[in-house]
Write a structure and sequence with these properties.
single chain, about 200 residues, alpha+beta, 4-stranded mixed sheet, globular
Length: about 200
């Protein structure tokens, strides 16, 4: 799958061998020559990428109270894991938003991608979606309960800056923004494109 990642992203080397395959996490190992000429086994984790979507509905922003059996309830933007059946990162974002909120949107822009841990090949893709195209009933997974809320920009920014739930992961997006118009004007994320 083609995707845009940060220029300085760290990937599992092509010569690495999978040492363990889990349901979500895989462990890869490879021999690495050190500066003194000796060799040591290095390893990294790899997991499916995830998407997070900042949705704008009638001038308000969508946040969800997402309850899962093993995590309790946390506030976040709609989103989730990129599945092997997804045609692209964007199609995963559209699927997750539709499943969790029932909304589909006309306009989409990738505004940020980051790698939370340098020892794990995992990227979080943050999308901005606006102009509602349609709405239907959400279709939640068996392991989640979701309550949707529409909030003003300033309320959302306050939650983000207080690092409330998973919303706090978006501080770097919101810290220099003062209003919804500035959010909607965020540029497309520029990085490097890979096919992995």
């Amino acid at each position: 799958m083609k995707k845009v990642i940060p220029v300085d992203a760290v990937l599992v080397p092509d010569q690495a061998q999978r040492a363990f395959q889990g349901m979500i996490f895989d462990v890869y190992q490879w021999p690495q020559q050190l500066f003194d000429g000796s060799e040591h086994t290095f390893e990294m984790l790899k997991r499916p990428d995830t998407v997070s979507v900042i949705c704008v509905v009638d001038g308000k922003l969508v946040i969800i109270d997402d309850e899962q059996p093993h995590l309790g309830t946390r506030q976040s933007f709609p989103g989730g894991r990129v599945d092997p059946a997804d045609a692209s990162i964007q199609s995963a974002a559209k699927r997750e938003v539709l499943e969790e909120t029932g909304f589909s949107f006309k306009n989409w822009r990738l505004v940020r991608v980051w790698q939370p841990y340098r020892k794990m090949e995992w990227f979080i893709h943050v999308w901005l979606a606006w102009e509602v195209d349609s709405r239907q009933a959400p279709n939640l997974d068996a392991g989640e309960r979701i309550d949707l809320k529409l909030v003003d920009f300033q309320v959302l920014k306050g939650l983000v800056m207080k690092r409330t739930g998973y919303l706090g992961d978006s501080v770097s997006i919101f810290e220099d923004l003062d209003n919804l118009d500035q959010l909607l004007a965020l540029p497309e994320f520029r990085g490097r494109t890979i096919d992995r």
